[in-house]
C-alpha cells in the first residue's frame, strides 16, 4: 500500500512544483493580453479597413445610381 502511495505522490509533487506554476503564469499572461485590447498596429489596420469599406460602399452606391439611370431594369435580371 505504501508503494502505491509513493507512486502517486511523486508525479503529484513534480506536477505541483514544475507544471502548475508555469501553467498558471501562461494562463494569466494570456488573459492580460486579451484584456488589453488591440495593439496600435491592429487598431491602425482596423481603421484602414473601415475606411476602405466606406469608400467601397460609396463606389457601389455610385455604380448602382449609374446603372439605374442607364438601364433601369438591371435589378430584375437574374
From TrEMBL:
Positions of transmembrane segments: 6-26
Alphabetized UniProt keyword annotations: Membrane, Transmembrane, Transmembrane helix
Pfam families: PspB
Annotated GO biological process: phage shock; regulation of DNA-templated transcription
Superkingdom, taxonomy of origin: Bacteria
UniProt KW Transmembrane keyword: yes
The protein's name: Phage shock protein B
Organism: Bowmanella pacifica
Gene: pspB
